[in-house]
Design goal:
The chain has about 80 residues and is mainly alpha-helical. Helix content is about 75%, strand content about 0%. It is built from 3 helices and no strands. The N and C termini lie far apart (about 65 Å).
């Protein structure tokens, strides 16, 4: 499904400049720029979901096992051998 959007000439020129600054250089500059931005938004959303899952796992582990001991000293001792 295609949509048409009317924007001012000034905004179009700003978008065109932003697209060229990112190395986009054909007749579909604005479309490519918008796709690039959407891709970054999708990636950011995915990263946020991953962080939320990590936090949930951390909370479940804490609820199950309590606070985990710090293993830094054990690692240092092992390396020193």
């Amino acid at each position: 499904m295609s949509q048409t959007l009317t924007i001012s000439d000034a905004l179009y020129m700003q978008l065109e400049t932003a697209a060229r600054e990112r190395g986009l250089s054909n007749e579909e500059l604005i479309r490519q720029l918008i796709q690039m931005w959407q891709s970054k938004v999708d990636e950011r959303r995915h990263r946020q979901e991953v962080v939320q899952r990590i936090d949930a796992l951390r909370e479940r582990l804490f609820a199950t096992y309590g606070e985990m001991a710090d293993s830094v000293e054990l690692i240092r001792t092992d390396r020193a051998r």
